[in-house]
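Write out this protein's structure.
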Amino acid sequence: MATAPLDKLKLELRRGVLVLAVLASLREPHYGYSLRKQLQGAGVDIDEGTLYPLIRRLADQGLLDSEWKQGEGRERRYYQLSTLGVELLEQLTQEWTSLNSAIGPLLLRNTNEEQH
């Protein structure tokens, strides 16, 4: 497969997954850099140019609460799921689980068919 179409499809696939990963990580308060480090530690690599606009968009949608707190010598804006964000994360998690249950066997079936 040519790299341009593959890169585009991978980016498309990652977009929704990144939203889910950020929401799940923000069950606990984080500022931008600490959130990025947590995601990277979990194997989700996200650059600042993607993360910060995503956080702002989720906050604008009412899914995150934020507050300024003193931390490590300077003020930082900490984000955490709002009540609406908690509800949405629960719904998205159910959707993710349902999609994984449906797609997983399809992927395995295709792999097994190729081996025969």
